[in-house]
Write a structure and sequence with these properties.
Largest sheet: 8 strands, mixed
Number of helices: 18
Distance between the termini: 97 Å
CATH topology of the largest domain: Alkaline Phosphatase, subunit A
Structural class: alpha/beta
CATH architecture of the largest domain: 3-Layer(aba) Sandwich
Shape: elongated
CATH class of the largest domain: Alpha Beta
Helix content: 40-55%
Number of strands: 16
CATH superfamily of the largest domain: Alkaline Phosphatase, subunit A
Length: 518
């Protein structure tokens, strides 16, 4: 009987108003528990707090009802397909918000669109499948099983007008709460489904269109020295200074670098996600304008530039040589492409083969990128045990998570030490290494994981990064700087390479003349 009743309900048409309302209620209830927790936890006690909380619930219900009605009435079958995709998107977005405490901003959508399958596959888990099955599939079944009557244009107009009226009423009722809404807009907007990822996807691509415009050329630079120079920039991935023993961490995660003649600087990242972090490392100053980046600038100025990467997210490059993981494996087929040690394969030979007096090499690591920390280093570097192997960080043992992450720092220590040994053996060039991370990483502090939080609210774990310098040249030394960051790289490289430019800022360079060798 129950099955017959259900069949009868599905067979009989419902009104488009009721159809859209059911989907809107499901959207509100199924996907907004994280938002509800946030709002309740941040509103003041009393009547006004209740007004804000109830207003948000009614507003989301009304806005979704309005949009769903428009899609269903105007697009028909295409509207159903689009809604189905949105509900799958809602389920996936909810998984990441609930499991990783991420905020779905335009920056985070940039991370999504710039993530390759090899990295994205690290997030796949049984929990994600359950989220899709229980929160994504049911509304899709309803969408295609339930029939509805599109109704008259008059009824459609009444629904739209009523929705707009409710929205205006809610806005008016909360005019006194503008400051609270503005203060929490980023967090709230990032948790409203499906508009968090839909709107921010458009925002991201709008930003990308501006970035893809032709870069403004920097003033012409000139090589002013005759020395044969080699500068290697190592861009770390998700390495936070909190877990480097060089910065006071209680675990010895830098047993090799601690014995090397290096200079360690306190540094703060300019962004909390890869594309923006790498861009800042290569820029000459913080600016909203699109200027020529360091590798392109050097290449145009007569420097040979080699970029080796096990990562992605760099700005458009116009350089001599670009080698990604696939290209490196073609050159060195007997290497292990699972780890960043691949970037060091054949490096000495490539340097020796260069006839250029000025050589700039970039190594872009991926060593500490989560959530699969335990897969980022060879087994011999698994010193801290046991390690976390799940990608569901919110369910992980935090100590095991830290253990796996610390092993990635131990491996980074080995890579940098090995690179120092390789460059120290080069006797026909002045050599230097600059290592800096694109951003830091959260490992469960405050319930946050990984990175990508907006800078205004990002914790120190996502902003405090390592900046390590090594140089072999006798005529140059490092100098003390109390604060450093991404933008010091540009000027330090120009300084070391003996390149003169109008935009060079000596105060931003970590180098100075070695008075002991004058």
């Amino acid at each position: 009987m129950k099955l017959d009743k259900l069949t009868s309900i599905l067979h009989n048409k419902t009104t488009i108003t009721r159809y859209a309302l059911v989907l809107s209620i499901f959207t509100l209830v199924a996907y907004h528990l994280p938002l509800a927790k946030y709002v309740v936890g941040h509103v003041e006690a009393g009547l006004n707090g209740w007004i804000i909380t109830i207003s948000f619930a009614v507003l989301m219900l009304t806005v979704n009802f309005l949009i769903y009605t428009l899609l269903l009435r105007l697009l028909g079958v295409a509207g159903r397909i689009l809604l189905s995709l949105l509900f799958i998107g809602n389920a996936i977005a909810l998984y990441f918000v609930a499991s990783y405490e991420v905020l779905i901003t335009d920056m985070m959508m940039g991370n999504v669109f710039n993530t390759r399958f090899s990295e994205a596959s690290g997030f796949f888990s049984f929990a994600l499948i359950l989220y899709i099955i229980f929160t994504g599939i049911p509304p899709i079944v309803y969408i295609f099983a339930r029939r509805y009557d599109r109704g008259t244009w008059r009824c459609f107009a009444i629904s739209i007008a009523s929705s707009l009226g409710v929205i205006l009423l809610l806005v008016g009722a909360n005019y006194k709460n503008v400051l609270w809404i503005d203060r929490n807009a980023t967090q709230i907007g990032s948790m409203i489904m499906p508009w968090s990822y839909v709107v921010n996807s458009f925002r991201y691509y709008g930003h990308q269109r501006r970035l893809n415009q032709e870069a403004k050329p920097l003033p012409d630079a000139h090589i002013t020295t005759n020395s044969r120079d080699l500068c290697v920039l190592v861009i770390g991935e998700s390495a936070r200074s909190h877990n480097f023993s060089l910065y006071g961490y209680e675990r010895n995660t830098n047993p090799l670098l601690s014995s090397d003649p290096i200079t360690v600087y306190p540094a703060t990242a300019s962004a909390t996600y890869t594309t923006a972090g790498v861009k800042a490392i290569l820029d000459h100053k913080p600016t909203g304008e699109l200027y020529e980046i360091l590798p392109n600038y050097l290449s145009r100025s007569g420097v040979e530039v080699i970029w080796r990467t096990a990562n992605w997210g760099e700005p458009p490059l116009s350089i001599n040589t670009y080698l990604d993981r696939k290209a490196l494996m073609e050159l060195y087929p007997n290497s292990d492409d699972r780890y960043d040690g691949l970037l060091l394969e054949g490096l000495e030979e490539q340097i020796a083969a260069s006839s250029a007096d000025k050589l700039f090499v970039v190594l872009h690591l991926s060593t500490s990128h989560g959530p699969t920390y335990s897969q980022k280093y060879p087994t011999e570097f698994e010193s801290f045990k046991p390690v976390c192997t799940t990608v569901e960080m919110s369910e992980a043992d935090l100590q095991e998570l830290v253990n796996a992450y610390d092993n990635t720092i131990l491996y980074t220590d080995y890579l940098l030490h090995t690179l120092i040994d390789k460059l120290a053996a080069i006797d026909d060039r002045r050599t230097a290494i600059l290592f800096i991370s694109d951003h830091g990483e959260s490992l469960g502090e405050g319930g946050l994981f990984m990175h990508g939080m907006p800078m205004a609210v990002a914790p120190d774990e996502q902003k405090a990064i390592p900046f390590i310098v090594w140089e072999s040249a006798e005529d140059i030394a490092t100098r003390k700087l109390d604060t450093t960051g991404h933008y010091n790289i540009f000027h330090s490289v120009l300084d070391f390479m003996g390149i003169s430019s109008e935009i060079y800022n000596a105060e931003m360079s970590v180098f100075c003349k070695n008075e002991n060798n004058q």
